[in-house]
Every structure is written in C-alpha cells, then in structure tokens.
Amino acid sequence: MVEHMKRNIFTIAMAAMLGAGTLVSCSKKLDRQPPNSVTASQVFSTNAGAKKALAQVYAAYALTGSNGSGSTNLVGIDAGTSDFVRLLWDASELSTDEAVCAWNDPGVPDFHNMAWNSSNPILLGLYFRIMYQVTVANTFIQQATAAKGNFKGSDLADLNHYIAESRFLRAFDYWEMLDLFGKAPFVTEKSPIGVGTYLPPQIKGDSLFNYIESELKDLDNTSALVAARQNEFGRADQACVWALLARLYLNAEVYTGTARYTDAITYSSKVITSGGYTLLPNFHDNFLADNDAPTNTEQILSIAYDGVNTQNYGGTTFIINAEIGGSMNPTAYGVPTGGWGGNRTTANLPNLYPDVTGTTDKRALFYTAGQTESIASISTFTNGYASVKFQNVTSTGQLPVGAATFCSTSFPLFRLAEQYLIYAEAVLRGGTGGTQAQALTYYNMLRDRASGNNASYEASSIGLQDILDERGRELSWECFRRTDLIRYGLFTSSAYLWPWKGGIASGTGVDAHYNLFPLPASDLNVNPNLSQNPGY
Amino acid sequence: MRKKRLLVQMAIGCLLLLLGISSSAQTRTVTGKITDSTGSPVSGATVTSPGYPGGTSTGTDGVFHLSVPARARTLLISHIGYASQRVPITGPDVNVMLVVANSIQNEVVVIGYGTQLKKDLTGAVTSLNAKDFQKGAITSVDQLIAGKIAGVSVTSNGGQPGSSSTIRIRGIASINGNKDPLYVLDGLEMPATTNDGIATTAGISSPLDFLNPDDVANVTVLKDAASAAIYGSRASAGVIMITTKKGTSGTPLFNFNTSVTAGTIAKYLPVLNAGQFRTFMAGQVAANPADTSFADMMGNSNTNWQKLIYQTAIANNDNLSISGTAGRMPYRVSVGYHDEQGILKTDKLQRESIGIHLSPHLLNDQLKIELNLNGIWTASRFANTSAVGSATTFDPTQSPYQKGSPWGGYFEWTQSSGHLNSLATRNPLALLEQDNNSGNSGASLGNVHIDYQIPHVDGLHAIADLGYDAATGYGTNKVPANAAQAAGNSPGPGLNNKYKTNTTYVQALYQLSYIKDLPSIKSNINLTGLYTYANTATTQYYYVGYDAAHDTLSGSAPIYPKYNPDYSMISYVGRLIYTFDQKYILTASIRDDRSSKFGPTNRKAIFPAVAAAWRLKQESFLKNVDWLTDLKLRGSYGKTGNQDGINDYLYIPQYSLSSNSSQYKFGNTFYNTYTPAAINANIRWEQTTSTDLGLDFSLFRGRVIGAVDYYNKSVSDLFFPTAVPAGTNFTNNITANFGTMTDHGVELALSVNVIKARNFNWDVDYNIAYNKNTITKITVGTPGANFYGQQAGPISGGTGNMIQMQTVGNDPYSFFVLQQVYGKNGVPVEGVFVDRNRDGVITPPPSADGYHDHAPYAPVIMGMTNNFSYKKWSLSIVARANIGNYMYNNVAADLGVTEYMLNPLNYLTNASTDIYRSHFYAPQFYSDYYVQNASFLRVDNIGLNYDFGQISRTASLRVSANCQNVFVVTKYNGQDPEVSGGIDNNLYPRPRNYTLGASINF
Fold first, then answer.
1. Percent of chain A having pLDDT more than 90?
2. Which of A254, A368, B702, B960 sees the fewest Cβ atoms within 10 Å?
C-alpha cells in the first residue's frame, strides 16, 4: 500500500516536471532583448536623446567606433587607421608633394608611388567611412523626421536644426565622394537599411554635383541651419553651407566641365562679409590643442577631438604623432608617450617659403635638426623635413589634461583663410562679382598675418600660380593639396614633379586616370549597379 | 601464532569499524584480480555477488576484496566499456584470476541522450576509457585524448598553466563561426567558450578546465553527422561526451594519487647572443664609420633574456576519492588539489576541486537518480606574457638592472631627456616582476538525471535531466607607479584594474524513451522523444580604472556597470533505433531547434539524420570464417548546424550609448553618442550535411581491432563577414550566411596486440586521418576582376598586414604570399619576387602577384600509442605526427631583418638568427620564404609504471614516472611547429614535463 502510494507520488512528480517543461516552451523565451541598448523610438522620444543621436552623426567623423580607440565600424582595415581624417589625409597629402610616409603599412606606399588600385585598404576605408557617415546621417534624418510629432516649441526648433545639420553633413560627404571618387552609391533617408534588401544606384558627375548643390541651396534658401557663428562649437551653421558651396563651385569645372567661378565668388563673399569671421592674429593657434576655444573666430567647422573623451588613433592624434620622429622630443609637441616617426614633407613644400625657419613667414613650421631636406629613403624618417604645424600643446604652451598619445587638437574642415583664397582664385579665373583689388587684399591679409604685418611681404600683384603656392603655404597638411593640384592640372601630369612622385626619386608623371580614386573592389563585387572609374 | 592472527584480525576489525562497516561472522572474503585481454589490470570494475547486498571495486592494480555471505555462489563483474561477466566462486579465500573479454562488440557506449552497445552503433563513434588516456602532468580533459582518436587533432594553446587546447574533429567545421566541438558532461551540454564575444570562462581558458581530469571515466567522440545530429545546431564541429567516475557498490574504496612535476623549457627561440650582437654592431660601424649611434647605445653585459624569464616549474597534483555504497546509494566523492608554476616566472595556478556523484536506485530500481556535482576553485597569478616577445628582442648587451633607475631599479630605454622611450621594448624581467595580475575563478556545474520506469509499461521511461553550469572569474591587475609598463614619459601612474565575468548556463531536458524487444519478429525498437530548453547568460562587469595610488584614471569610468547578453534555445528531438535479427540496425532521428539568435522567420531549423549498420559477421556466409572475429558495415547521413560564434542580437535594430572615451563635444559638453548597431535581420543557421561510410572489424579473436571511415561534408550558409553595399548598413562588413565549403577525408584506427606472452605484452594503437577542406563559394555573385578573396590572419609587423586569404578552390586560411626568387647559392634575393601577373610591377597582396602557398591545417594527422608490460612493469609511449601543415614564421619575418635592429627610434633591438639565413635588410612580410613546412613528429608522452600490487592486506600501490613533450622531429626552424592557426608569433613555450606519481588504493 505504502509502496503503491509512493509510486503514485513519483508518477505525479514526473508528470508535473514534464508539464513544467512544456510550459516554459513558450516562444517568448526566444525573444531576448539586447542589454544596454534602446530602440529608435526610445532614442527619439526626447530632445536629449535626439541630441545624443546627432552627436553620433558628428562623431562618425571623429571616431573609428563607439567603444574606445580600438573599436571600429569598418572591417578590412586596421581600427586605428579607419578614421575619416587619417584616411583622407593619406589620400590627399601622401599623394602630393606635401608629404611622404616612412611606414610600410598596407596601402600607404601606394600614395607616393601613385600606384593605387581598387584593393587599396586605405581607399576602401575612406570610401566606406564616408558612406558610413552618409548612412548615419540618413538614419538620423529619417528617425528624427518621423519623431517630429513628439516635439514642441524650442525642442522642435532644435530638432529641425539637427535634421538640417545632418543634411549639410550628408552633402559634405557626397562632396567628398565627388571629389575623391567622382561618383557614389546614392542613398537618402528613404533608402532601406539591412542585408540583402537593397542595392543603391550610382550617382556621378553632373547628377551628383546637382544633388549636392540643390541640397545646399535648399538649406540656404530655407535658412534651415542656425545663423553663422550662433551655434555651439562643433556644430554646423549657415556659414558652413556657403563655405561648402564656394568650394564646390571653385572645383565645378573639374567635376562637371562647367566653370562656376561667379558662384564661388558669391558664396565665399557671403562667408567673408556676412559670417562675422576674422582671422586669428596668430596663424599657428589654428592648429594647437586649444583651437576649439569659443574665441576662435576663424574656424567655421572643425572635427573636435579630445585626448580623454574623444579618443582615436586617427585624426590629429595621427597627424601629430606621425610627424614626430628622429631627434624630436614628443613631449614638446604634447604627446609625451607618442611619436610614431612617419610623415615628412618633400623639399617642394619648404621651398614655397622664403626660408624654412619661419623667420619671414611664420607658417613655415618645420623641424630640421638631424633631418635632411632631400629624401634618399622614404622609409627613413630623418630624410625630409618634419612638419610641426599640428601640435597638442595649447597656444600658451601648456599640455592638455591627460596628454599622453591622444590629442585634443581639433581638425579644421572649413576656415576663413580658405574662403579668401577661393575668392581670389575665382576672380583670377574670370568669375564675376568680385574684383582683382579685393582678391589682392584678401591674399595680402594672409601674408600680413604670416609675416607679422611685414609690408615688404605683401604682394603687389598675383597670378594663379601665386594662389596655388599661397594655398600650399596656408593650407598645407589640411587635406587640400590633391584637389588643388588636380584643379591646376598638375596632379598626375609631368608638368609638375616632386621627389618620389610616381615612385621615382626624381619624380615622374603618371596616367591621368589617377585623378580619380578607384571604387573599392569589395563594393563593386556586391553592388552590380556600380561602375568602376576608367583606367582601374 | 594464534595471538598474532588475533592481532591482525583485531586490527582489520578496527579498520573496518573505522570505515564504518560492520562485518558479519558468516561471511568470507573473495580476493581476485581483474585484467583485460592484454593482461593489464582493470581498475574501477564493480564486483558484486548477485542476490546479496554489497559489492566492491577493483583498484588501479585490478585487485578486489569482497566480503560475501558464505552461501554466495557467483560473482558479477561489470565495468563500463566491458561486457559484464558472471563467474562461479570456486572456493573460499581463493584468488580469482579473471580475464574480462575485450570484445569491442559488447562495450556500452554513450551516445546522445542514451547508451548503446558498440556492436549496434551505426555511426563513427570513438570511445576512450581511463586506461586509454594520456598520463602524466595532465591538467585538463583535452590533454587526455591527444593523439588517441583518428581525425581528432588536439593542439595545446601554449604552456601557460591552465591554458587549454584547440580541438578540431575532422578538419574545421566553420570559417568564422564556432569551430569547437560541443562538450557534453554526464548529459550536461556545456556552453560555448564565448557568448556574444565574451569568454564564458574568464580566468580559465576552456570549459573543460572546470573538471578535474582525474574524475573522468570515459571520453566518447561523436564524429559523424548522424551521431551528432541528435545535438542539432551545436554539433557541426562534432561532439565530445565526457562521463565521470561513479560510485561503486560495496565497501568504501579509497584512492589517493599524488604526483610531482618539474617543467623546463624545451627550446629557446634562436636570437643573437651578446657576442653576435656586438659583432653585428661592429659591422655596422665598419660599414658606416660616421654613424656610431647604434653601437654607442650598447651596454657591457651579456644577458640571455630568455634564460632570465623562464624557470623550472614545479607542480603538485593530489587527488583523493572515496567510492562505495551507503545504504542503497552508490556514491563517489573526490577532492583534488593542484598547484602549478608556469615556466614563465611569476606564473602560478592553484586549483581545488570537488566532485560528488550519487546514484540512488529507488522503488525496486524503478526510479534511478543520478546526481553529478562538480566544483572547482582556482587562484592564479597570470604572468605578463608580453615578456615572451620582449625577451627575444631585448638588447642582450644590457644588464637587467641599472643603478639609480627610476623604473624600480630595472634598466629601461629612455630618451636623452631622461624620459621613457615610449616605443621601446620593455625590460622583460620588469614586465614579469612589476606586474601582479591575480585572478580567481570558480565554477560549479552539475545535473540531476531522473529516470523513472513507468509502471505497467515495460521499457517505457520518463527521464528528466536538469543541469546548470555557473562560473565566475575575477581579478585585479596591479602595476606599481614606478613600472615602465604602465607609465607615461616619467614614472607613474601605474595600474590597478579590476575585471569580472560571470556565466550561467541552465538546461532542462524532458525525455520519454521506450525500449522493447519483440522476439516474435526478431526486432528491437528503441524510441526516444525529448524536449530541451537551454539558456546561456554571460555578464561582463565594467570597472573604473585606477592608478597605483588608487586614483581614478581619466576617461576610464564605464558608462554601463555591466553587459549581460544571453541566448536561449528550445529543441524537440525524436529518434528511432530499430534492430532486426541482431544484424540490421537502423537509426533515424530528427531534431527541431529554435534559437533566440535569429529572427522569428529564421528561428527554426530541422536537423534530420539516418544511419544504418549491417553486422556482416552474423551472416551465414561469414559465420565460419574463423580469423574474422567481427565485421560491420555502416553508413550514415545527417545534418548539423552551428549558431555559436556570432553575436546574440544581430537581427535586432538597436541603439547603444558610446563609451566615455568615445564621446563627442558640442560647445563645452561631451555627449555619449547614440550609435545605431549594424544589423542583419536575415541571419540564420550554418548547416552541415555529412555522409559517412565505415567498416568496423575485429580479427584473430580480437588481436587486431580496427575501423575505417570515409566521410564527406558540405557546409552551406557559412557565417561569413560579408561586404555590404556601401550606404545600406552601419558597417561595410557584417556576418551573413553565404559561402560554402566541402570537406572529405579518410580515417583508419587500428589496435593490435602484437605480442602476448605469459609475462610480456605489447599493444599498439595507431590512427591516421586524411582530411581536405575546400572553400567552394565566398561571394554572393560572381566576384569581380580585382577580387582576391577574404583576407585573414593578421600578423605582427606593420599595421594591418594579413597573410591568409579565403578563396574559392583553396583550403580555408591558406597563405597568400609573393613567390620569393632565390639566388644560385640558395639565398633569397631581397625584394625580388616572381611577377605572376607579368605587369612589370610587384604589388603586395591582395594582388594578382600573390598566390596560395599551402595551408596551416595538416592534411594528414597520426597518433600512435605503444604499451609494453612485463610482469609488474609497464611502459607507454604516445607519439603524434602531422604531415603537410605549414606555418608562417612570423617571428623570423618580424625580427629576422637588419632594419629591425637599426630602427630609428633610439633603442636597440635584438634579431632572430634567421637574419643569418635570409640576409634580408628590410622586412619581406609577404615573402613565401616565411611559409615553412611544419610537419612534425612529436613524442608526447613516455610513461613507466611499476605496480607493487598488494602492499598490505587492504592496500595496493602503483608508482609511475612520466615525461611529457619528450622531443619533436621537424624541419621547421621556429620554436615549435605546432601553433593553432598557423601563425607562429611568440607562443608561450610548451614545457617539457617530468612527473613522478604514486597511486594507493585502500
């Protein structure tokens, strides 16, 4: 009897356990939610949340990934190399007379050899980094627009500014694509996100130019952005739209075959006269660790880095560390634990200045002790003068908080000096709406600052070559040189040579197809809508 | 005389009383020794007398003593892996010499969710018992089976205490997904080694390290898909089932074994000594008298840095187990203590373990409960392993110490300003002695298996199996302020960093099984249906970083206190095993798996399998073939899956906040950014379809036993980092399912009893396997002209160089390099490569100048064990060989060039002696010169045992001496030809271990 009861109890217990098993089988067990993350609707439910998402639209330029300097959004390229400015710098400076790099990192030597191809990892990184920025901006525009109903009053006004800024940044990205690759996969806030769902069409040449122009003009016409100099540091304002339009029009002939110098004059003038910007008294302050101060009246838009809070191995951290080697003391440049011994200039850049010491022109910021002017070996850092234009010390000579390797110097994307030179060049190239006299005045404003108001350093007349040379002196290492040389027809041709151009010590011309970079093979492989640039 | 006997009886009586056992006057003791067919003692065999309570087990010497009632007539001897035998008790107090039949056919083998007689197996399953295991300084279960199973490669991940091995069954099962086999411990399916990128076992390298190898009774490997398919989505890399030792019947049996091990470095990495270094520098000055900058930096010492950082490592291992039956409950309780130094100074591991196994049978054996509990606790000090690399490159002319050095008295490279040279190599000794990374880990895993025979339906069982695995690992890494390894340009700030990871795995399984003999139709059916639920949750804790003074390091504050991803699985399984006439066996199974890693539409996958075996020997035409003891033909087909090795939430759109060092500044405020995560809503299972054809045979009454297998696998929907069209995702590359791979191979396993004489026995176990993996697809569409494949295999030297390439038609991870041109003297000509695309330019890979030059995985692997026994002596030799595996010698490529020694960064570096072979000035990372044949023959283990047998009436003793990693024969000129993944870069050297051990049963 007892035995029998025992058996029953066990039978019931077993049945109960089996029953419990069936109960837990409901499929909710399989709907696991990721920890430490939120949905888009949660992000865009408040102004504070939307602003943090906007911060990512900007941070996409400053960071390689969201979890520290070792993280990256891109695959197939070293994390520290995958940042926008570092990639752009390699492509825009190492391919010109302004810089060579000692490193043998994958893809790097291709630039001074002018022998890149569609497998170059730096170009892959650059292409995808820019398109990543576009995708983040697209998603922001889409989600923020959808969430507008949740916002009222000043919050709604803020949100509209965020959207407009994202549209501006997207236009800037597409301008970079146009300038570097001549074409782009065309995606907007209406394009779907995901795997295997969508193959973007290609946009190129005139169409791409027109798209960028129409976006910028629409932003301008609707005064969608905060007025010039009225936004927080680090965020785009109305003057950014003008500055980009000016730059776009200056190069329009390269992009579309149609010159637009008059428009370049119109928009550069707008920046110069309506923006409220002035040149900083001291040129070098633009490239030091406190260049993000609100008192910086010259910078229109910069990428903000911080040695503690915005860390990455690209950006100014790359520019500054890579320029230090040989007998240079890293601490003197604000990176006590840094100094990577990579980049120097060819003789052509120092030769643009009256002297390399900076006595006449303070923009001649070179380190020459133990360095030779000529470059016998690219892989030897002491061959070629080092540039010390970018530094991680403040204008008063202090090290920023936490100075070690990471830098706090912001990288200027647009500053007033460039607009002066756009105006001057557009006038000289036949644009209307400006004067030769005004062009000369702007030109001499830069030379006055550079020389400490030395009247003898002022020019009495200028030609196009003077503008190019002045751009070299003023804007060196700021990612302008490749675009400038192409506009002047000097990038690939043998009309202008520099040491190691085309991989030859004495320099040599290369085929004109190198004026555009190739699309990375990996995107061509997955998107049949894309066509490669000629020659690759 | 009588007195003496009385004394002895009294002493024994006291001992028995001490052990809590009362003996009856009407009993007698039967003593015997159990040996297997080769004459080796069989330990752990259960000896009972049917019909009477009590029982005992044999010790390691095979000897048992059993008290039986005077009227008992028979003994029953049983042991997992052997057929049970009944023998008559021919007289009182008589030594019974038993030979347990070694017929493979009656072995009981664990299979997924059950057991089966080996004769009825339909799949490729290899089972190893304790007697087959590798012996010596074994610290983890994987080491037990190295070289023992055809097609199973076990590569240790280096010599660090507690470091595990990489196990690959029949080649690699995946390219980017999980490649590790599924481990099943006493029915508990253990979690994968990582979950969502977090190691599930922090501080410990493998889930197997949570088990004391001394507690393992049996390891069974399911190799073919049909056997493994019952485990469905986690089984595509094979299944390793581990059974722990269980309680025995009868009086308590104590086993104590102890060993002491001394480990030494087997081979130093060849680098220049101080004399060679000075000669080199003198040569530089002679060549360029103007530049003495390098020679000027030399010191006056002769330091062998490698000698300085390695030590003779002492290890102790003690295990005590008690097994027996209390009431009606067999039990086994074991405790283990392990204390090990690493051969790298400061490396230490202490481990304590406990295992409890209870198997009560209740209700007249209708209810069987099996409880397994394992606990382990480790305390480690982890040496800073970067010392391994820095010892090879540190200038041998410098002294380790420097008077007045602010760096704790150690010599460090400084700038002329006195500041630390931040890019210089750090003093290897300081790296070790100034770093105190102490960690603890603890784990508890266990399960309860309840098997209830449902009344009135003979053969119908309801089974519940509830298990868990909970692990924690935590520690602190402390570096003092004066240590160069955590300093800025001047001493400080040091380091004080905490870390912690927890893992919890739970599993619930409910099963109904029905086994029925139907003699009228000569059939046996075995039906199983089950449901399981499993959840793996890991928690990684984030801490603020402190400096040595316990001040917060700026930017180190974590934004979240922890990250705790988890994933769940729900599965339904059905299986039928049908046996007809004991000759024809059919197995069919189906598993339905659902995983939370995939979106609702991709969640479900079906894994079917079917297998058949034909016992040819049972056929009349073979019955009379005397020399053929047994012959079985088997074939199987099955599907398995893979879901480990990818993120838990890839299909869910989500935003997360960036970390504090990844903020962006607007105005004067830094914002953590809301970042959208890359997403693949279509992620789904990786699937492997396999077929296997096998032949099991036994010849000459079991003197030769073997198995031959041919298999063919094809993997589809491979997890592959896929280039996504620019503009369509938040990355350029995401894990997606495409790509296919095929795999085929042949395996042979042979056990031969070569000599069997009265006092001498010689057994040879030999296995050889050939495996060939080929990638058959890696792009969605047709690849473009400039597509060379998916790069893999990052190497050190330069930034972002990768040496391997996944390409259609080639082995996974094959090296993609430039073809070096050699001079007439056989010396490579620097910078001269074959222009394979004839465009006049050599473009480094990925380019058309690159070519596929061999692969890291050995196509042929072999293992051989020789066991000799002579009287009480036995000698065992285990050797392994890999043939056709290639290695990228990254040490030589990085360190073996002049330019490396003449770096412009104001410090000196030593070079690999490969500099004398290659004579390269500048690095030639992509030269095929560095892709070197790493085929090898390694004598893994030589063990000598002496069995004293009975040293007293109740105790027996066995002693052993063992050498592990005895020697390696190879043409490879790096440190060790065996590096998992094929890129040799400062492996923690595997020690050569000498072990002395003793085992006592009482």
1. 81
2. A368
What is the pLDDT at residue B338? 92
Q: Which residues of B touch A329 (CB under 8 A)?
A: 415, 417, 419
Of all residues in chain B, what percent carry a pLDDT higher than 90?
55
A320-347 pLDDT tens trace: 999 998 889 888 999 987 888 899 999 9
Which chain B residues have a beta carbon less than 8 Å from that of A295? none
Angle subtended at Cα A37 by Cα A35 and Cα A43, rounded to the nearest 5 degrees: 155
Instruction: Give pLDDT, residue B23.
Output: 38
CA distances to A406, B389, B392, B433 from B305, in Å: 32, 10, 7, 14
Cis peptide before A528 (omega within 30 of 0): no
Sign of the Cα pseudo-torsion (A464, A466, A467, A469, in order): positive
| Position B871 pLDDT exceeds 70 | yes
E-strand ranges in B296-403 read 313-326, 329-341, 348-358, 361-362, 367-382
Output the pLDDT for position B213.
86
Report the 10 Å Cβ neighbour count for A1.
Answer: 5
H-helix segments, B394-476:
428-433
Query: Among positive and negative, which fits the CA dihedral B27, B33, B35, B41?
Result: positive
B6 torsion bin: left (phi>0), alpha (psi -120 to 50), beta (else)? alpha
What pLDDT is stored for residue A23 in this prediction? 46
Q: Please, which pLDDT band fits residue B607 given cuts at 50, 70 and 90?
A: very high
The reply to whether residue A337 touches residue B671, judged by beta carbons under 8 angstroms, is no
Interface of A with B in 71-130 (CB under 8 A): 71, 73-78, 80-81, 103-106, 115, 117-119, 121, 124, 127-128
Q: Which residue of B has its CA nearest to A187?
A: B727
Nearest chain B residue to A31 by CA distance is: B596
Give yes or no for residue A430 having a pLDDT over 80: yes
Dig out the tokens for A222 from the structure. Answer: 């609707």
ipTM of the complex: 0.94
Which residues have a Cβ under 8 Å from the Cβ of B134 and sit 6 or more positions away? B143, B144, B145, B146, B147, B148, B878, B940, B941
Q: Do B799 and A81 touch (CB under 8 A)?
A: yes
The answer to whether B33 touches B97, Cβ cutoff 8 Å, is yes
Residues in CB range of B479: below 8 A, 6 or more apart:
B434, B435, B436, B485, B486, B494, B495, B496, B548
DSSP B602: T
Averaged over A405-413, what is the pLDDT? Answer: 95
What is the spatial distance between Cα B833 and Cα B458, in angstroms, rounded to a whole number? 75
Segment (H or E) for A267: helix A261-269
| Residue B469 structure tokens | 């695995």
Q: Mention every residue, 6+ apart, whose C-beta is less than 8 A from residue B624.
A: none
User: pLDDT digit string (tens) for B89-137?
Assistant: 776 555 555 554 444 556 788 888 888 888 888 888 888 888 888 877 7
Beta strands at B239-244 and B182-185: parallel, antiparallel or unpaired: parallel
**Cross-sheet strand order for the sheet of B983-984:** B931-933, B886-889, B983-984
**B65/chain A closest Cα distance in angstroms:** 35
Helix (H, G, I), strand (E, B) or coil at B371: strand
CB pairs under 8 A between A and B: 350
Give A514's DSSP letter.
G
Both tokens assigned to B647:
């993120």
Cα separation, B606 vs B625, in Å, equals 43
Helix (H) or strand (E) holding B534: strand B523-541
Cβ-defined contact of A58 to B664 (cutoff 8 Å): yes
**pTM (whole model) above 0.95:** no
Cβ of B802: how many Cβ atoms within 10 Å? 21
> For B27-36, what is each residue's pLDDT tens digit?
777 888 787 6
For A340, nearest residue in chain B (alpha carbons): B423
